[in-house]
Amino acid sequence: MGGNRLIATAALLALLALPASASPDRAAPDFALPSLGDGNLRLSEFRGQVVLLTFWATWCGDCLEQLPALAELARRHAGRGVELLAVNIDRHSHVARELAGRFDFPVLFDEEQQVARLYDLRQMPVTLLIDQHGQVQELPRRRGTRQRGLVLEDLSARLAMLLDD
Amino acid sequence: MNRITGLAAALLLATLVPLSAGSAGSLDGELQALKDQVLDLNRELYLLEEELLFPANTQVAVFLSMDVGEFFALDSVQLRMNDSTVASYLYTDREVTALHRGGVHRLYLGNLRTGEHELVAVFTGQGPHERDYRRATTLRFEKGTGPKFLELQISDRVSKQQPEFIVREWE
Fold first, then answer.
1. Which of A49, A71, B17, B50 has its CA 20 to 30 A from that of A100?
2. Which homologous superfamily is A22-164 in?
3. How far apart are CA B40 and CA B44, in angstroms?
Protein backbone atom coordinates (compact mmCIF):
# COMPACT_ATOMS: atom_id res chain seq x y z
CA MET A 1 0.00 0.00 0.00
CA GLY A 2 2.88 2.28 0.88
CA GLY A 3 4.32 1.44 -2.54
CA ASN A 4 1.12 2.56 -4.22
CA ARG A 5 1.23 5.87 -2.43
CA LEU A 6 4.86 6.34 -3.43
CA ILE A 7 4.05 5.61 -7.06
CA ALA A 8 1.00 7.88 -7.01
CA THR A 9 3.08 10.68 -5.46
CA ALA A 10 5.82 10.19 -8.02
CA ALA A 11 3.25 10.24 -10.84
CA LEU A 12 1.68 13.40 -9.48
CA LEU A 13 5.03 15.12 -9.11
CA ALA A 14 6.07 14.05 -12.59
CA LEU A 15 2.83 15.44 -13.99
CA LEU A 16 3.37 18.69 -12.12
CA ALA A 17 6.85 18.86 -13.61
CA LEU A 18 5.46 18.82 -17.15
CA PRO A 19 6.08 22.13 -18.91
CA ALA A 20 3.26 24.58 -19.47
CA SER A 21 3.62 24.07 -23.21
CA ALA A 22 2.13 20.61 -22.83
CA SER A 23 -1.19 22.42 -22.47
CA PRO A 24 -1.59 25.38 -24.82
CA ASP A 25 -4.43 26.89 -22.78
CA ARG A 26 -3.58 29.72 -20.40
CA ALA A 27 -5.47 31.51 -17.69
CA ALA A 28 -7.31 34.56 -18.99
CA PRO A 29 -5.99 37.65 -17.17
CA ASP A 30 -8.73 39.16 -15.06
CA PHE A 31 -9.90 42.72 -15.57
CA ALA A 32 -12.78 45.05 -14.81
CA LEU A 33 -14.11 47.69 -17.18
CA PRO A 34 -17.06 50.06 -17.30
CA SER A 35 -19.86 48.86 -19.52
CA LEU A 36 -22.84 50.45 -21.20
CA GLY A 37 -25.77 50.16 -18.85
CA ASP A 38 -24.50 47.27 -16.71
CA GLY A 39 -22.10 49.17 -14.45
CA ASN A 40 -18.58 47.80 -14.15
CA LEU A 41 -18.05 44.22 -15.28
CA ARG A 42 -15.28 41.89 -14.13
CA LEU A 43 -14.27 38.91 -16.24
CA SER A 44 -13.82 36.58 -13.27
CA GLU A 45 -17.48 37.07 -12.36
CA PHE A 46 -18.34 35.08 -15.49
CA ARG A 47 -16.48 32.01 -14.19
CA GLY A 48 -18.59 28.93 -14.87
CA GLN A 49 -19.74 30.37 -18.18
CA VAL A 50 -18.06 30.26 -21.56
CA VAL A 51 -17.04 33.76 -22.62
CA LEU A 52 -16.47 35.00 -26.14
CA LEU A 53 -14.20 37.97 -25.52
CA THR A 54 -13.89 40.13 -28.58
CA PHE A 55 -11.97 43.37 -29.06
CA TRP A 56 -13.35 45.96 -31.43
CA ALA A 57 -13.03 49.59 -32.43
CA THR A 58 -15.14 51.95 -34.50
CA TRP A 59 -12.26 52.31 -37.00
CA CYS A 60 -12.04 48.54 -37.50
CA GLY A 61 -14.40 47.58 -40.31
CA ASP A 62 -13.75 43.85 -39.97
CA CYS A 63 -14.63 44.01 -36.29
CA LEU A 64 -17.92 45.74 -37.00
CA GLU A 65 -18.76 43.18 -39.65
CA GLN A 66 -17.93 40.31 -37.34
CA LEU A 67 -19.86 41.51 -34.29
CA PRO A 68 -23.35 40.46 -35.50
CA ALA A 69 -22.12 36.95 -36.31
CA LEU A 70 -20.51 36.65 -32.88
CA ALA A 71 -23.69 37.92 -31.26
CA GLU A 72 -25.67 35.32 -33.16
CA LEU A 73 -23.26 32.58 -32.09
CA ALA A 74 -23.57 33.64 -28.44
CA ARG A 75 -27.33 33.95 -28.72
CA ARG A 76 -27.61 30.44 -30.14
CA HIS A 77 -25.89 29.03 -27.05
CA ALA A 78 -27.11 31.56 -24.49
CA GLY A 79 -29.19 28.96 -22.68
CA ARG A 80 -26.03 26.92 -22.08
CA GLY A 81 -24.07 29.67 -20.38
CA VAL A 82 -22.33 31.43 -23.24
CA GLU A 83 -21.73 35.16 -22.96
CA LEU A 84 -20.30 37.60 -25.48
CA LEU A 85 -18.27 40.47 -24.04
CA ALA A 86 -17.23 43.09 -26.58
CA VAL A 87 -14.36 45.30 -25.46
CA ASN A 88 -14.13 48.59 -27.33
CA ILE A 89 -10.62 50.01 -27.46
CA ASP A 90 -11.31 53.46 -28.93
CA ARG A 91 -9.36 56.18 -27.12
CA HIS A 92 -12.55 58.25 -26.97
CA SER A 93 -15.58 56.06 -26.64
CA HIS A 94 -18.42 58.50 -27.41
CA VAL A 95 -18.96 57.19 -30.98
CA ALA A 96 -18.67 53.60 -29.78
CA ARG A 97 -21.22 54.28 -27.06
CA GLU A 98 -23.72 55.44 -29.65
CA LEU A 99 -23.14 52.30 -31.68
CA ALA A 100 -23.22 50.06 -28.63
CA GLY A 101 -26.68 51.30 -27.77
CA ARG A 102 -27.96 49.14 -30.63
CA PHE A 103 -26.26 45.97 -29.40
CA ASP A 104 -27.96 43.43 -27.16
CA PHE A 105 -24.75 42.14 -25.54
CA PRO A 106 -22.46 43.74 -22.96
CA VAL A 107 -20.07 46.30 -24.41
CA LEU A 108 -17.11 47.37 -22.28
CA PHE A 109 -14.92 50.41 -22.77
CA ASP A 110 -11.14 50.23 -22.56
CA GLU A 111 -10.27 53.85 -23.35
CA GLU A 112 -6.83 53.56 -21.77
CA GLN A 113 -6.26 50.27 -23.59
CA GLN A 114 -5.05 48.60 -20.41
CA VAL A 115 -6.93 45.40 -21.16
CA ALA A 116 -5.69 45.45 -24.76
CA ARG A 117 -2.15 45.52 -23.38
CA LEU A 118 -2.96 42.87 -20.81
CA TYR A 119 -4.02 40.56 -23.64
CA ASP A 120 -1.10 41.64 -25.83
CA LEU A 121 -3.41 42.69 -28.63
CA ARG A 122 -1.44 42.90 -31.87
CA GLN A 123 -4.12 42.64 -34.52
CA MET A 124 -7.79 43.31 -35.01
CA PRO A 125 -10.28 41.77 -34.93
CA VAL A 126 -9.43 39.33 -32.17
CA THR A 127 -11.86 37.04 -30.43
CA LEU A 128 -10.85 34.77 -27.58
CA LEU A 129 -12.76 31.83 -26.29
CA ILE A 130 -12.55 31.50 -22.52
CA ASP A 131 -13.83 28.28 -21.00
CA GLN A 132 -15.83 27.72 -17.82
CA HIS A 133 -12.59 27.52 -15.80
CA GLY A 134 -11.22 30.82 -17.05
CA GLN A 135 -8.73 29.28 -19.49
CA VAL A 136 -8.18 30.81 -22.92
CA GLN A 137 -8.76 28.12 -25.49
CA GLU A 138 -6.13 27.78 -28.17
CA LEU A 139 -7.55 28.41 -31.65
CA PRO A 140 -5.87 28.15 -35.05
CA ARG A 141 -4.16 31.37 -36.11
CA ARG A 142 -6.06 33.04 -38.92
CA ARG A 143 -5.03 36.22 -40.67
CA GLY A 144 -6.67 38.46 -43.22
CA THR A 145 -10.19 39.18 -44.34
CA ARG A 146 -10.44 36.01 -46.40
CA GLN A 147 -10.04 33.88 -43.32
CA ARG A 148 -12.72 35.69 -41.34
CA GLY A 149 -15.28 32.98 -42.01
CA LEU A 150 -12.84 30.37 -40.77
CA VAL A 151 -12.41 32.22 -37.48
CA LEU A 152 -16.13 31.94 -36.86
CA GLU A 153 -16.09 28.28 -37.86
CA ASP A 154 -13.19 27.62 -35.48
CA LEU A 155 -14.99 29.42 -32.67
CA SER A 156 -18.23 27.63 -33.33
CA ALA A 157 -16.58 24.20 -33.45
CA ARG A 158 -14.54 24.79 -30.29
CA LEU A 159 -17.55 26.18 -28.50
CA ALA A 160 -19.58 23.11 -29.36
CA MET A 161 -16.75 20.92 -28.04
CA LEU A 162 -16.59 22.87 -24.79
CA LEU A 163 -20.31 22.69 -24.22
CA ASP A 164 -20.44 18.98 -24.96
CA ASP A 165 -17.68 18.18 -22.45
CA MET B 1 13.97 16.34 -21.35
CA ASN B 2 10.30 17.30 -21.28
CA ARG B 3 9.45 14.25 -23.31
CA ILE B 4 11.30 12.07 -20.80
CA THR B 5 9.40 13.62 -17.90
CA GLY B 6 6.12 13.10 -19.69
CA LEU B 7 7.04 9.54 -20.49
CA ALA B 8 7.98 8.90 -16.88
CA ALA B 9 4.62 10.27 -15.75
CA ALA B 10 2.78 8.13 -18.27
CA LEU B 11 4.71 5.01 -17.21
CA LEU B 12 4.07 5.67 -13.56
CA LEU B 13 0.38 6.19 -14.18
CA ALA B 14 0.27 3.04 -16.28
CA THR B 15 1.86 1.18 -13.36
CA LEU B 16 -0.99 2.35 -11.20
CA VAL B 17 -3.68 0.73 -13.33
CA PRO B 18 -3.09 -2.92 -12.41
CA LEU B 19 -2.56 -1.93 -8.78
CA SER B 20 -5.82 -0.08 -8.66
CA ALA B 21 -7.82 -2.94 -10.10
CA GLY B 22 -7.71 -4.76 -6.79
CA SER B 23 -8.31 -1.92 -4.43
CA ALA B 24 -9.87 0.89 -6.41
CA GLY B 25 -11.75 2.30 -3.44
CA SER B 26 -8.76 2.68 -1.15
CA LEU B 27 -6.63 4.11 -3.96
CA ASP B 28 -9.33 6.68 -4.68
CA GLY B 29 -9.20 7.63 -1.03
CA GLU B 30 -5.44 7.92 -1.14
CA LEU B 31 -5.55 10.06 -4.27
CA GLN B 32 -8.11 12.29 -2.60
CA ALA B 33 -5.84 12.59 0.44
CA LEU B 34 -2.95 13.44 -1.86
CA LYS B 35 -5.05 16.09 -3.57
CA ASP B 36 -5.88 17.57 -0.18
CA GLN B 37 -2.19 17.60 0.69
CA VAL B 38 -1.37 19.40 -2.57
CA LEU B 39 -4.05 22.00 -1.75
CA ASP B 40 -2.64 22.44 1.77
CA LEU B 41 0.83 22.80 0.31
CA ASN B 42 -0.44 25.39 -2.14
CA ARG B 43 -1.99 27.39 0.70
CA GLU B 44 1.20 27.23 2.72
CA LEU B 45 3.23 28.32 -0.31
CA TYR B 46 0.88 31.28 -0.78
CA LEU B 47 1.35 32.35 2.83
CA LEU B 48 5.09 31.87 2.59
CA GLU B 49 5.19 33.93 -0.60
CA GLU B 50 3.30 36.76 1.11
CA GLU B 51 5.67 36.64 4.07
CA LEU B 52 8.67 36.77 1.75
CA LEU B 53 7.35 39.49 -0.54
CA PHE B 54 5.82 41.59 2.21
CA PRO B 55 7.82 41.10 5.41
CA ALA B 56 6.12 42.32 8.58
CA ASN B 57 8.59 45.17 9.16
CA THR B 58 7.76 46.83 5.83
CA GLN B 59 4.25 45.58 5.18
CA VAL B 60 1.42 48.03 4.55
CA ALA B 61 -2.11 46.94 3.70
CA VAL B 62 -5.07 49.13 2.82
CA PHE B 63 -8.62 47.82 3.20
CA LEU B 64 -11.94 49.23 2.09
CA SER B 65 -15.24 48.83 3.88
CA MET B 66 -18.64 50.38 3.46
CA ASP B 67 -21.47 51.11 5.78
CA VAL B 68 -24.97 51.36 4.26
CA GLY B 69 -23.93 53.51 1.28
CA GLU B 70 -27.31 55.15 0.79
CA PHE B 71 -25.73 58.44 -0.26
CA PHE B 72 -22.94 57.05 -2.38
CA ALA B 73 -22.82 54.44 -5.14
CA LEU B 74 -19.19 53.37 -5.34
CA ASP B 75 -17.61 53.08 -8.76
CA SER B 76 -13.86 53.12 -8.21
CA VAL B 77 -11.07 53.95 -5.81
CA GLN B 78 -7.60 55.14 -6.66
CA LEU B 79 -4.83 55.01 -4.09
CA ARG B 80 -1.77 57.20 -4.13
CA MET B 81 1.05 56.58 -1.72
CA ASN B 82 3.62 59.38 -1.44
CA ASP B 83 2.46 60.86 -4.76
CA SER B 84 2.59 57.69 -6.81
CA THR B 85 -0.44 55.64 -7.77
CA VAL B 86 -0.25 52.22 -6.18
CA ALA B 87 -3.74 50.86 -6.76
CA SER B 88 -6.72 51.59 -8.90
CA TYR B 89 -9.80 49.45 -8.54
CA LEU B 90 -13.12 49.36 -10.36
CA TYR B 91 -15.95 47.87 -8.30
CA THR B 92 -18.70 45.78 -9.89
CA ASP B 93 -22.27 45.71 -8.59
CA ARG B 94 -21.62 42.32 -7.04
CA GLU B 95 -18.56 43.60 -5.17
CA VAL B 96 -20.45 46.67 -3.91
CA THR B 97 -23.23 44.39 -2.67
CA ALA B 98 -20.63 42.31 -0.83
CA LEU B 99 -19.25 45.48 0.77
CA HIS B 100 -22.75 46.51 1.86
CA ARG B 101 -23.13 43.13 3.49
CA GLY B 102 -20.09 43.80 5.63
CA GLY B 103 -17.33 42.56 3.35
CA VAL B 104 -13.89 44.12 3.58
CA HIS B 105 -11.77 44.39 0.47
CA ARG B 106 -7.99 44.40 0.58
CA LEU B 107 -7.24 47.10 -1.91
CA TYR B 108 -3.50 47.21 -1.59
CA LEU B 109 -0.64 45.25 -0.10
CA GLY B 110 2.86 46.62 -0.39
CA ASN B 111 6.08 47.58 1.32
CA LEU B 112 7.10 50.86 2.91
CA ARG B 113 10.18 51.82 4.86
CA THR B 114 9.80 53.17 8.37
CA GLY B 115 9.01 56.86 8.65
CA GLU B 116 6.30 59.27 7.65
CA HIS B 117 4.12 58.63 4.61
CA GLU B 118 1.07 60.09 2.93
CA LEU B 119 -1.87 58.15 1.59
CA VAL B 120 -4.43 59.77 -0.70
CA ALA B 121 -7.57 57.88 -1.64
CA VAL B 122 -9.75 59.17 -4.45
CA PHE B 123 -13.30 57.83 -4.51
CA THR B 124 -15.52 58.13 -7.57
CA GLY B 125 -19.14 57.16 -7.94
CA GLN B 126 -22.56 58.67 -7.70
CA GLY B 127 -23.51 60.84 -4.77
CA PRO B 128 -26.88 62.11 -3.58
CA HIS B 129 -29.43 62.75 -6.39
CA GLU B 130 -27.39 60.46 -8.67
CA ARG B 131 -24.81 63.13 -9.33
CA ASP B 132 -21.28 62.17 -10.31
CA TYR B 133 -19.20 62.35 -7.21
CA ARG B 134 -15.47 62.46 -6.69
CA ARG B 135 -13.87 62.93 -3.32
CA ALA B 136 -10.31 62.62 -2.07
CA THR B 137 -9.23 61.94 1.45
CA THR B 138 -5.73 62.08 2.87
CA LEU B 139 -3.94 60.44 5.75
CA ARG B 140 -0.43 61.10 6.97
CA PHE B 141 0.83 58.21 8.97
CA GLU B 142 3.94 56.95 10.65
CA LYS B 143 5.23 53.56 9.61
CA GLY B 144 6.96 51.81 12.47
CA THR B 145 8.76 48.49 12.54
CA GLY B 146 5.59 46.40 12.60
CA PRO B 147 3.04 45.90 9.80
CA LYS B 148 0.67 48.80 9.15
CA PHE B 149 -3.01 48.29 8.38
CA LEU B 150 -5.15 51.15 7.14
CA GLU B 151 -8.87 51.16 6.49
CA LEU B 152 -10.85 53.35 4.12
CA GLN B 153 -14.41 53.51 5.33
CA ILE B 154 -17.35 54.88 3.41
CA SER B 155 -20.36 55.67 5.53
CA ASP B 156 -23.48 57.81 5.47
CA ARG B 157 -23.71 61.08 7.32
CA VAL B 158 -27.47 61.19 7.80
CA SER B 159 -27.50 64.65 9.37
CA LYS B 160 -25.91 66.18 6.25
CA GLN B 161 -27.42 63.72 3.78
CA GLN B 162 -23.94 63.17 2.40
CA PRO B 163 -21.47 60.31 2.28
CA GLU B 164 -18.48 60.38 4.56
CA PHE B 165 -15.01 59.07 3.76
CA ILE B 166 -12.81 58.12 6.66
CA VAL B 167 -9.27 56.74 6.72
CA ARG B 168 -8.15 55.15 9.92
CA GLU B 169 -5.28 53.12 11.20
CA TRP B 170 -5.89 49.76 12.78
CA GLU B 171 -4.32 49.55 16.19
1. A49
2. Glutaredoxin (3.40.30.10)
3. 6
